């Protein structure tokens, strides 16, 4: 079956450039990143930083203007199981970028665990939630080179399901969808570190959203750019 192709809906400024501008505007005192890889987004921060990745591959200078940078080479679940970012920083996370494992339930946990260490005025940004093609959203990587894929070799996984999840379960959040190339950025504010709705409904959410199919993916794309700000 032919791929769907929404690439003109994510043809805006590249996500790294957008994040660079966001750092300049927000001027966070603390930055938290899950999923570092080569360090292209980590290097943008010039404040106290915590970053987590089971396999760092940085060969560039990622310290830049950071007064301190705590690097945890482990999964985000392992990190949150043994560490407290608020205690490490001595204050809440101001700005977080979530770009780790690209399975829905992983990003859901990363969001839940990160929000607990934010203040209401903090910002959480999530990557890859607007994948322009369907075959790049596979959970098993098999379809990445599907003969009908318009984006061969791309993999965004199924993290896009976090957006309908938050819209349904957390109407109190302000959610902004951007058209950043190549797979969008989702910006979440008006956070509540004491909220327990996502944790309480975790299993129900997985049952409800994890098996979403192509029809639901296309429905998502038809509706995702309507305004969800609280
Ligand atoms: C797409 S890359 C991050 C790219 C980087 N943020 C950037 O934009 O340049 C995803 C990273 O997530 C890491 N990762 C995979 N599973 C993870 C997990 N369970 N917890 C944290 N990071 C994970 C991978 O090792 C990989 O380096």
Topology:
Blueprint: H1 15-26, E1 30-34, E2 48-52, E3 69-72, H2 76-82, H3 85-89, E4 93-98, H4 104-115, E5 118-127, H5 162-169, E6 174-178, E7 185-189, H6 197-200, H7 202-209, H8 214-223
Parallel strand pairs: 1-2, 1-4, 2-3, 4-5
Antiparallel strand pairs: 5-7, 6-7
Bound molecules: S-adenosylmethionine.
The site of S-adenosylmethionine has 17 residues, from loops.
Summary keywords:
230 residues; alpha/beta; Rossmann fold; 8 helices; binds S-adenosylmethionine
What this model shows, in words?
- The chain is α/β, with parallel strands linked by helices.
- The protein has one domain (7-223): Rossmann fold, CATH 3.40.50.150.
- The chain has eight helices and seven strands.
- It has a seven-stranded mixed beta sheet with strand order 3-2-1-4-5-7-6, with helices on both faces.
- The longest helix is centred in the first third of the chain and has 12 residues, at 15-26.
- The model has no long low-confidence stretch (mean pLDDT 95).
- The structure holds S-adenosylmethionine (SAM).
- S-adenosylmethionine (SAM) binds next to loops.
- S-adenosylmethionine is lined by residues 34-38, 40-41, 52-55, 75-76, 99-101, 106.
């Amino acid at each position: 079956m032919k791929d769907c192709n929404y690439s003109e809906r994510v043809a805006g400024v590249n996500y790294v450039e957008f994040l660079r501008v966001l750092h300049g505007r927000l001027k966070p005192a603390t930055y938290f990143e899950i999923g570092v890889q080569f360090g292209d987004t980590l290097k943008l921060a010039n404040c106290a930083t915590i970053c987590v990745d089971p396999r760092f591959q940085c060969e560039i200078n990622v310290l830049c203007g950071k007064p301190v940078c705590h690097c945890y080479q482990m999964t985000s679940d392992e990190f949150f199981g043994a560490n407290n970012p608020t205690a490490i920083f001595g204050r809440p996370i101001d700005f977080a970028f979530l770009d780790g494992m690209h399975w829905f339930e992983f990003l859901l946990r990363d969001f839940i665990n990160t929000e607990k260490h934010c203040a209401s005025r903090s910002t959480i940004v999530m990557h890859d939630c607007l994948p322009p093609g369907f075959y790049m959203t596979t959970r098993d990587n098999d379809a990445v080179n599907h003969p009908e894929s318009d984006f061969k070799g791309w993999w965004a996984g199924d993290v896009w399901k976090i957006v309908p999840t938050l819209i349904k379960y957390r109407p109190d959040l302000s959610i902004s969808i951007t058209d950043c190339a190549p797979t969008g950025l989702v910006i979440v504010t008006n956070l509540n570190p004491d909220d327990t709705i996502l944790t309480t409904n975790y299993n129900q959410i997985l049952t409800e959203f994890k098996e979403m199919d192509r029809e639901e993916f296309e429905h998502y794309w038809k509706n995702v750019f309507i305004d969800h700000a609280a």
